[in-house]
Write a structure and sequence with these properties.
15 helices, alpha/beta, globular, 8-stranded mixed beta sheet
Length: 470
């Protein structure tokens, strides 16, 4: 069985907007005597757009129509039709995710990506997509090393720690090349609030309207580099790191054996332009400072396979996973987007407590508008007995009664390969739409998108993501 999906990635970042188109090939890696195990095998980049500066109407408002025009133009250059796109991601990243109309921009672009697309700006997902787009997961797996990856963009640096190819933690710092923007003559045109506050506290004379130079900016550049070094455990953590943390830094669950870099600033680590004002910001100086860091050089600096395009390549080629050794669906209105995950504790999953635990937790998702559609995430069992499946189905049926009364249908995601049996058993107990999928582990605070069935209905494209906007 060979089938392919056309995937797009659209990344609207602090500095740049980019677009890629990819072909994802599905493969059945199960043996002929077992249930299918369909995975995404080959990932081929079909088209990379040019690098566009993200259009803004003001410091707080994105030019939504300007972004839409860029994407429309790139669709034409790539020779794509909207209806031919199967999956992918539209992500608003970095400081741009904090603009007033970020959600409006995503809605404006949703039609460009077919029926199933992710629209997200969570810093955790961004960290993972950038690292995978840069090939860090594979590098870590092949070398056996623990690698801390930095995707240093215009407004933020996204961190992802990998050990032997396994993701251990993520983080995000407000460190980037566009935190200070400069006119052609070096006059400061913008200073981010965090940098401005640090400059005031340290009495560094960098402010709006002043004439900057590499010497004047050196303390700021040094502080941003030191914050990155501290986040890698190469310096003792200080007030400096706390000041520039976005929501949290990566938890160093293993000693860092190498660091790698992607993002626009990464290009300035290896091939900086001669003119430090080439991009009208501090990106060139920050890249040179990272390259000169003795602490980073001691552990070893790796260059990502993608640099400025790492996040958009990750969005276009690495955002989608598949559910499907066994699945069950009946009358589900695909695609399903931005569904919150309800994850129970291991104790709550025990059959005697399950129904009551589900009903108790459903109150988390009941607001002024009433109950919301959600996904119940369970660990499940690999080889459950028939009696266990029947008891589990009965508990889920009882527990989801308030959900069904509110007009929603049960969606159950289990880690073990038991979704088909569970779904068939549930279908005898409840009427209407129903969806059970396997091989998926969601956590409280995650959201999921579930696309229409592919591979002859055998699998479902699934994206697990963090909060839609931060």
């Amino acid at each position: 069985m060979k089938e392919s999906l056309l995937s797009v990635g659209i990344d609207i970042g602090t500095s740049t907007t980019q677009f890629v188109a990819s072909r994802l090939t599905l493969e059945n890696r199960g043996n002929p005597f077992s249930v299918p195990k369909i995975v995404i095998g080959e990932k081929e980049i079909l088209y990379r757009s040019g690098i566009h500066f993200t259009p803004l109407k003001s410091e707080t408002v994105i030019d939504a129509e300007g972004v839409r025009a860029i994407v429309s133009e790139e669709y034409g250059r790539a020779g794509l039709r909207r209806e031919s796109v199967d999956t992918g991601a539209v992500i608003i990243t970095g400081e741009t995710a904090r603009k007033e109309n970020a959600q409006e921009v995503v809605r404006t672009l949703a039609g460009f990506a077919g029926d199933f697309v992710v629209a997200t700006a969570g810093p955790d997902l961004e960290s993972i997509l950038a690292a995978r787009g840069a090939g860090v997961d594979q590098t870590s797996r092949e070398t056996g090393r623990t690698v801390l990856h930095f995707d240093v963009g215009g407004g933020t640096s996204n961190l992802a720690l990998y050990r032997r190819g396994e993701l251990l933690s993520t983080g995000c710092l407000d460190v980037g090349g566009r935190l200070i923007r400069l006119d052609r003559d070096g006059t400061v045109a913008y200073v981010s609030p965090k940098v401005a506050s640090w400059c005031r506290d340290k009495r560094i004379p960098v402010s709006l309207g002043c004439r900057a130079s590499p010497e004047l900016l050196a303390p700021v550049i040094g502080a941003l580099t030191a914050a990155l070094e501290e986040s890698a455990g190469l310096r003792p953590p200080s007030e400096l790191l706390e000041r520039f943390i976005t929501h949290r830094t990566a938890e160093l669950l293993a000693p860092v054996e190498a660091v790698s870099f992607s993002g626009g600033v990464a290009d300035c680590i290896w091939e900086p332009p001669e003119d430090w004002l080439a991009f009208g910001d501090i990106g060139v100086l920050l890249g040179q400072s990272i390259a000169a860091s003795e602490l980073f050089r001691q552990v070893g600096i790796l260059q990502g396979r993608e640099t400025i395009r790492a996040t958009v390549v990750g969005a276009g080629a690495h955002s989608t996973e598949l559910s499907g050794s066994t699945i069950f669906y009946r009358d589900a209105p695909f695609p399903l987007q931005n569904l919150p995950v309800l994850r129970l504790s291991q104790e709550e999953e025990q059959i005697p407590a399950l129904a009551e635990a589900i009903q108790r937790r459903l109150s988390w998702f009941s607001g002024q508008q009433g109950m919301s559609q959600l996904i119940l995430s369970l660990r499940g069992e690999r080889n459950p007995s028939f009696a266990h499946v029947q008891a589990l189905a009965k508990a889920i049926s009882q527990g989801t009664e308030p959900l069904r009364a509110a007009g929603y249908f049960p969606i159950v995601a289990v880690e073990g390969d038991m979704a088909k049996t569970l779904g068939q058993t549930l279908s005898l107990q409840i009427s209407g739409p129903l969806l059970c999928l396997d091989g998926v582990a969601g956590e409280n605070g995650d959201y999921m998108d579930i696309g229409a069935p592919v591979a002859g209905g055998a699998v479902l494209p699934v994206v697990i993501k963090t909060l839609v906007f931060h």
